[in-house]
Each structure stands twice: as structure tokens, then as C-alpha cells.
Amino acid sequence: MKVLLLTGALFFAGMAGCASAQEQSRTVERTVKSVPNRDTRIGVYLNVQPDCTSGPLPTIRLVSPPASGKVVVKNAKVKATNYKACLALEVPAYVAFYKSPADFLGNDVLTIEVKYAGGRTEIQKITVNVMKAGGEQRI
Questions:
Q1: Global pTM?
Q2: Farthest-apart Cα atoms in the chain, separation
Q3: What pLDDT, in 10s, does the model give residues 44-91?
Q4: How far apart are CA 45 and CA 60, in angstroms?
Q5: In which region does residue 21 sit, left (phi positive, over 0), alpha (psi from -120 to 50) or beta (all else)?
Q6: CA 20 to 30 Å from 105, out of 27, 70, 86, 87?
Q7: Whole-number Å distance between alpha carbons of 103 and 72
């Protein structure tokens, strides 16, 4: 099992709370940068209850696979601090990774469906921008 310590801004899917009828199903579009032939984290899926404990983990399904790369989901344990009312928490999670072939450069698109125990469904359309190492802009 992999342990992730999460700091700063990271996309969390599945923070528990009161969801209205409109929020029972939604679509999210995101872009992730990657380099060829390297595992890149594209999502962290967990369920944190209002009392800072873990709820049941969601079901994850690859609706449309990427044209060039592969997607793998692994079990992990997430540690986070200062999230909403939770000063510190450690909960189980699923982490999705994308890996492109060594010779691939460009955009690869995939769609993941995430179903939570409360009936909420989230469709995630993820575009992975694969570019040569060192090609990112430095600040």
C-alpha cells in the first residue's frame, strides 16, 4: 500500500457532505501534464465523512481508455492536514495513474466514472498533455 502525504492544492474526488439533487451526477473536465513513460497521478479518490473518518470508497470505471497510454488504479493511504474541519486525517483511498509509451508526445484523453455510496456519480474527462521532460515553463 502506498502512503501519500497531501499538501497544497490537489484534486480530491469524493469529499463527503450534503449533496443536493442537482449534484447527484456531474461532469468534470481536467488537464494533467506528463512526460513519456512515467507514472503520473491523475486522480485521488476517497471519502471523508464530516467526523473526519473514512466512508466507503467509490467504485471507479474506465469509460473510455486513452488512445495511447494506460491507466492503473492503486490502493493508498492518504494523510492530510487542515482539510475543512479536519485538522489531521489518514484515510484509505484509490489513486489513478496514467503512463504513456516512451515515444508518445501529445494529448491523450480518457474518461473515468466515479460512483459513490450515496448515489452520486461523477464523470471525469481527463486530458493528459504528454511532453518532453524539461519542456515545462519555469517560474
A1: 0.80
A2: 47
A3: 999 999 999 999 999 999 999 999 999 999 999 999 999 889 999 999
A4: 9
A5: alpha
A6: 27
A7: 19
What separation in angstroms does the CA of 10 have from each of 52, 83, 103, 136? 18, 12, 28, 19
Among 49, 117, 59, 118, smallest CA distance to 89 is for 49
- Beta bridge partners, 76, equal 2, 93
Residue in the structure block whose three cell numbers are 516512451: 102
Q: Tell me, rounded to whole angstroms, the distance of Cα 35 from its chain centroid.
A: 18
DSSP for the chain?
Answer: -EEEEE-SS--EEEE-----GGGGEEEEEEEEEE-TTS-EEEEEEEEE-TTS-B-PPPEEEEEE--SSSEEEEEEEEEEEEEETTEEEEEEEEEEEEEE--TT--EEEEEEEEEE-TTS-EEEEEEEEEE--TT-SPP-
Neighbours of 45 (CB within 10 A): 24
Q: Residue 93 in contact with residue 46, Cβ under 8 Å?
A: yes
The C-alpha cell at 11 is 484534486
Other C-beta atoms lying within 10 Å of the C-beta of residue 94? 20
